[in-house]
Write a structure and sequence with these properties.
The protein is of the alpha+beta class and 205 residues long. The chain has one domain (2-199): Nucleoside Triphosphate Pyrophosphohydrolase, CATH 3.90.79.10. It is 27% helix and 32% strand. It has five helices and eleven strands; from the N terminus they run αββββαββββαβββαα. The protein has helices at 2-17, 81-93, 145-149, 180-192, 195-202; strands spanning 36-45, 51-56, 68-69, 72-74, 101-105, 109-110, 115-124, 139-144, 155-161, 164-173, 176-179. The longest helix has 16 residues, at 2-17.
Length: 205
């Protein structure tokens, strides 16, 4: 998986070396005093058409029940974002951390429910024997990275929440609805790694 890792690493470094505008955030909707540090793993699976590993949360979870999410969770004391993201992916899906090559931490995303989420981009090999933890994962799937990076793949929705109109991105993929925090993190990543740059660099499609 070194070729994809090298390509994505170069794109990631170039994208984070230049200023971007319009990064999404829900910080203005946070009515709590908390800013709980959290991390998620954006695991790019090294296939001929690279994919991103996503999960669906159980409906009985306290935060974001039933939503599509990246593997991830709170950063424990003594951890950084990278170690937390790898630990959570291992706990949720039995994704072995020694099979994951980390590229780097991307833009912090603040949720309306009081989490400060650091996305960690990484590459993992295909067809690992994943085993979801039923307490944290109802289902898991892969979606093509180039599809997720394409702004035209998303629709913009609007809802009245916490006394104000909130716009959010939305996509339906093979029976799963990708929206909310996960969609916003992907949109922010797409500002750092535009679809056309990704396709030109990797020849993935």
């Amino acid at each position: 998986m070194s070729e994809l890792f090298d390509h994505l690493s170069a794109l990631f470094a170039a994208g984070h070396a230049r200023p971007v505008t319009g990064l999404l955030s829900d910080a203005a909707l946070n009515r709590t005093d908390r800013q709980t540090p959290a991390a998620v793993l954006i695991a790019v699976i090294d296939r001929p058409r690279p994919t991103i590993l996503l999960t669906q949360r159980p409906n009985d979870m306290r935060d974001h029940p039933g939503q599509v999410a990246f593997p991830g969770g709170k950063i424990d004391p003594g951890e950084d974002a990278v170690s937390a993201a790898l630990r959570e992916a291992e706990e949720e899906l039995a994704l072995p951390r020694d099979q994951v090559r980390v590229i780097g931490a991307s833009d912090l995303y603040q949720t309306g429910t009081g989490f400060a989420v650091t996305p960690v981009l990484a590459v993992a090999p295909p067809d690992l024997p994943l085993s979801p933890n039923p307490r944290e994962v109802a289902a898991w799937f892969e979606a093509p990275l180039d599809l997720l990076l394409d702004p035209d793949s998303w629709t913009t929705q609007e809802v009245f929440w916490r006394g104000r109109d909130r716009r959010y991105l939305d996509m339906h993929y093979e029976g799963f609805r990708i929206w909310g925090v996960t969609a916003a993190i992907i949109a922010n990543l797409a500002k750092r790694i535009p679809k056309q740059d990704f396709l030109r660099q990797t020849g993935a499609v």
